[in-house]
Amino acid sequence: MKAVNNPNLGLALFDFDGTITTADTYTKFLLNTTPLYRIVIGALVLSPFILWHKLGRYPTAKLRPKLTFFAFWRRKVASTKRQANNFSAQFMDSVIFDRALTEIRWHQTQGHEIAVVSANVNIYLAAWCHRHQVNLISSELAVQKRRKNQRYTGKYRNGDCSNEKKALAIKSHYKLANYSHIYAYGDTQEDMPMLALANKKYFQWQEIA
C-alpha cells in the first residue's frame, strides 16, 4: 500500500534490525516459525554459503533470499501469518531499542511521516508497525496464483529490499521533493543508499555528513 505524501513535512526512515532493535529478529523469526525438517535441510544445503557469509565473503543480501526460500516455499499463507503475528506480539517488544522508540515518538509529535524500511519480510514486521502507527516498506513474500489455500512461493515479489533497492522502494512510495526535512537511520552498509536520500542521516545512531 502506498503511503500518503504530505507536502512540506518531515519524513523519517528507519532501518529495523540493528537500528530499531538490539538483536537480529529475522533469524529468530525463521528459527521460531520454520518446521524443523526445513531448518535441517536448509542448513545442510546452504552450509557453504553460511560459512562464506561468516567469513565475510558472501553478502547478507544474497544469503537472505536463500534462507527465505527454504523457510517459506509452499507454506500456507493463513497459518504462516498467524505464526508471524504471534511471534511479533510475544517477542518483538523485548528487543526494541529504547532510543529508537523515543526517536519515533518524537517524529510523531512533530507530525512527520514515518516508515520502517527493511530487507526483512513484511509478514512479521507489519503487526509491529501497525501497533506503533508507522508505515512499512520491506521485502514482500510472493504468493502463488490461486484463490483457495494460498501458499507462498518462497521468493520475493520485488526482490530483497536492501542496498539500492531500499532507496528505489522509498522513491516509489514517497515523492521526496515534497518533504522539507528527510531523516534516515541505519546501521549497516546496506542502509547507505537510504541514508544518501536524507539531509539528516544517522549511522549507528551517530549523525554523519
Automatic annotation (TrEMBL):
The record ties this protein, via InterPro entries, to:
HAD-like_SerB (IPR050582), HAD-like_sf (IPR036412), HAD_sf (IPR023214)
What are the GO BP annotations of this UniProt entry? L-serine biosynthetic process
Full protein name: Phosphoserine phosphatase
According to the UniProt record, one GO cellular component term is: cytoplasm
Q: Which UniProt keywords apply?
A: Membrane, Transmembrane, Transmembrane helix
Highest taxon of source: Bacteria
Recorded source organism is Thalassotalea euphylliae
One Pfam family name from the record?
HAD
Gene Ontology molecular functions:
L-phosphoserine phosphatase activity; magnesium ion binding
Looking at the UniProt entry, the stretches that span the membrane are 36-55
